[in-house]
Amino acid sequence: MESCTCLDAWDILKQDPNAILVDVRTQIEWQNLGTPDVNTNQLLLNSIRLYPEMELNNDFAKVLLKKTQEKSFVFFLCRYGSRSLEATLIHKKQSTTPAYNLIDGFEGNKYGLGWIKSGLPLKKFN
């Protein structure tokens, strides 16, 4: 399993317009905390689990494949790094596009600071 930090992914996203960040958190998380502020064509908001029961989103894999087929790199982000790991595994079953779990998540954990605490750009969810 390939993993990297949010800072590593940010460096690639800035340099490669064909890389994409898939935020797999729930809509309520996007509303409460915001989303990464990257180029529109570099961000896919696709919840892997649906709030409040957190059951698997049956459309996740289909949407993911459709939106990432032509991308150079796919980075998966969730709150702490576990749902993004699940998403990375699903992606690897259906695509050969290089995929990376952002191990430190949106809010950070023992592996790193995360998107917010690294000072990476955020925007409000509309």
From TrEMBL:
Pfam families: Rhodanese (PF00581)
Keyword match Transferase: yes
Key words of the record: Transferase
Matches recorded under InterPro entries: Rhodanese-like_dom, Rhodanese-like_dom_sf, STR4-like
A GO molecular-function annotation: transferase activity
Rhodanese domain location: 15-124
Keyword Protease annotated: no
PROSITE patterns cross-referenced by the UniProt entry: RHODANESE_3
PANTHER family per record: RHODANESE-LIKE DOMAIN-CONTAINING PROTEIN 4, CHLOROPLASTIC (PTHR47377:SF1)
Name assigned to this protein: Sulfurtransferase
